[in-house]
Specification:
Blueprint lengths: L1 H19 L5 H23 L8 H28 L2 H8 L2 H11 L7 H18 L8 H24 L5 H19 L13 E3 L8 E3 H35 L2 H14 L5 H18 L3
Helix pairs in contact: 1-9, 1-10, 2-3, 2-8, 2-9, 3-4, 3-7, 3-8, 4-7, 4-10, 5-7, 5-9, 6-11, 7-9
Amino acid sequence: MVAVAAALYAVNASVVKVIEHTGFDAQRLTEVRSTGAFAGLAAIVLATRPAAVAIGVRELALVAALGIGGLALVQWSYFFAIHRLPIGEALLIQFVAPLLVALWARFAFHERVRRRLWVALVLSLCGLVLIVELWRGKLDGAGVAVAWVACLSFAFYILVAEVGTRRRDPISLLAWAFLFAALFWAVVEPWWSFPRHVFGGSTSLLGHLSGLHAPLWLLVAWMVVLGSIVPFALVVAALPRIGATRTAIVAMLEPVFAIFVAWVWLGESLNAVQIVGAGLTLAGIGLAQTAR
């Protein structure tokens, strides 16, 4: 489930790059994504399990924290970072989050963490460094800073979502969380100032697909449904099954997939060093799966 979600997120990174090329900024993209995801998830809950809509006062604080501190911030910081940095470099910084999750599990929850898990994290991070060739070029300061915000908010999202799944099903949990994310961005970027006319245009798909054009509304629909609703639901549904630490580690497949998609779609090249890095990351993920 997490691997499928990682693949969908990876494709979505290139979709977002194309959408941003039309002039959409990170705030508006996050607002559209959050509001669309809430509408879709709420419709699913109302159609399949309307009783799950009920929520207690104590749960409201948790879903508000998940929605604002997790979903709202992780999406905005991710969009902002990949606008300022190459996709791979932004994701490398964001995916320090699994290490933070493991450290939190060990020192805050006093959970036993096998040594092989730490080896798996080191392998995966070393692999990511090779994939993005971090030693090349000068990184954008604002992009790097916001990528670290993405890292912290991603770790927060995984940890809080795991607690939330102990009390309710993943779909209704996400529906409530996305409601708060949507409300947060509606305050930051009021809807009455939204440039609605942009949905009527089309855009080039860039890179190797530059000769093809797609309606902007279709790309936004992809971002909401296959780039948000489906992968977020898969990740949160996986948390009760494999836990926050291993979920975060398996999610490291996303940068590997994202580099491959960017190569095929946007024309970014892969060399021998990056292929070795992908192998290390996959080896780390495989090792993490044995750390039960």
